[in-house]
């Protein structure tokens, strides 16, 4: 049967890409964030995942305001990155596996999730930068990728509870696969940040730290909040933490914490990184 090795979650702001391009990852401002990936790099070398399932949110590269599905799954053999206007380098295409993706899509539909299946899909910084952070020395991402995009742009947004259930379903589907593939689950976005309006620059350190702790001890903790309550707690863009919830639910029950980093700020965002290992 297929195996889920663990979960990595990370913030994904475009300025991460600029820091990489300018080679300033190790200065005083960025160093604590990028250093948070050192134990993850060691873990990846030891465990060698074959597939990474990425829960992320599109920012207009693939979906615009006229067509935004609540949940969408890539069903292609390749995913292309294009210029988003942030001044960050465009990264090479990412390898997909349409057969694997369709198995997940069919399993989700059987579990009554109405997902959009994307046989062509552009992937933006929320997908590309986290993968680059995992394999910074590789010119091309070395693993199969499966993008699962969750709408955080245009209301109505899916609830934290619904995203948690989505992730749980994805985990069940993977674990039922007749395959010897090793999977890593990834959730990108957050943590607390507000990029515009009267609360621009808002960061809720206390909530962020409670949320990080809950990933280990009580993974469904944040599902008690409505979306409006979450936005009040973590800012408009902080709602991206629903990707972390989906990833944690996919990982399943017992986990071993390997590494956690919390660094404030990275581009007016609370930078969070976490690696949890699945325990049978």
Give a written overview of the molecule:
This protein is an alpha/beta fold and 280 residues long. The chain has a single domain, classed as Protocatechuate 4,5-dioxygenase, Chain B (3-Layer(aba) Sandwich). The chain is built from 9 helices and 10 strands. The strands form 2 sheets. An 8-stranded mixed β-sheet has the order 6-3-7-2-8-1-10-9, sandwiched between helices. Strands 4-5 form a two-stranded antiparallel sheet. Helix 4 (98-110) packs across helix 6 (160-175) and helix 6 (160-175) runs parallel beside helix 9 (241-251). The longest helix is centred in the middle third of the chain and has 16 residues, at 160-175.
Which secondary-structure class do the elements indicate?
alpha/beta
Largest sheet: 8 strands, mixed
Q: Uncertain runs with pLDDT below 50, 5 residues or more?
A: none
Arithmetic mean of pLDDT: 97
What is the count of helical runs? 9
> Secondary-structure element sequence?
EHHHEEEEHEHEHEHHHEE
CATH superfamily assignment? LigB-like
**Name of the CATH architecture:** 3-Layer(aba) Sandwich
Query: How many separate domains?
Result: 1
**Text of the CATH class:** Alpha Beta
Instruction: Estimate the strand proportion.
Output: 15-25%
Number of strands: 10
N- to C-terminal distance: 13 Å
Give helix % range: 25-40%
The order of strands across the largest sheet is: 6-3-7-2-8-1-10-9
Q: Mind telling me the C-alpha Rg?
A: 17 Å
Q: Note the overall shape.
A: globular
CATH topology: Protocatechuate 4,5-dioxygenase, Chain B
């Amino acid at each position: 049967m297929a195996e889920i090795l663990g979960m990595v979650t990370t913030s994904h702001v475009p300025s991460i890409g600029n820091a990489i391009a300018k080679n300033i990852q190790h200065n005083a401002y960025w160093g604590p964030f990028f250093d948070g990936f050192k134990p993850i790099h060691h873990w990846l070398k030891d465990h060698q995942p074959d597939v990474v399932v990425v829960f992320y949110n599109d920012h207009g590269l693939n979906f615009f305001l006229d067509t935004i599905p609540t949940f969408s799954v890539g069903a292609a053999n390749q995913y292309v990155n294009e210029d988003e206007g942030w001044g960050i380098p465009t990264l090479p295409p990412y390898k997909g596996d349409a057969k694997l993706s369709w198995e997940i899509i069919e399993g989700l539909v059987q579990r009554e999730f109405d997902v959009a299946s994307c046989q062509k899909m552009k992937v933006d910084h929320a997908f590309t930068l986290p993968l680059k952070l995992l394999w910074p020395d590789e010119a091309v991402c070395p693993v199969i990728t499966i993008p699962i995009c969750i709408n955080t742009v245009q209301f109505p947004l899916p609830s934290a509870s619904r995203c948690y259930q989505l992730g749980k379903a994805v985990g069940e589907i993977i674990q039922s696969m007749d395959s010897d593939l090793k999977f890593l689950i990834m959730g990108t976005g957050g943590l607390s940040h507000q990029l515009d309006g009267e609360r621009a620059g808002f960061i809720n350190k206390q909530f962020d730290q409670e949320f990080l702790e809950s990933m280990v001890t009580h993974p469904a903790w944040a599902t008690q909040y409505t979306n409006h309550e979450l936005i009040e707690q973590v800012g408009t863009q902080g709602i991206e933490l629903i990707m972390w919830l989906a990833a944690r639910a996919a990982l399943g029950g017992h986990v071993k914490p390997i590494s956690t980093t919390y660094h404030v700020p990275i581009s007016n965002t609370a930078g969070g990184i976490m690696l949890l290992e699945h325990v049978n």
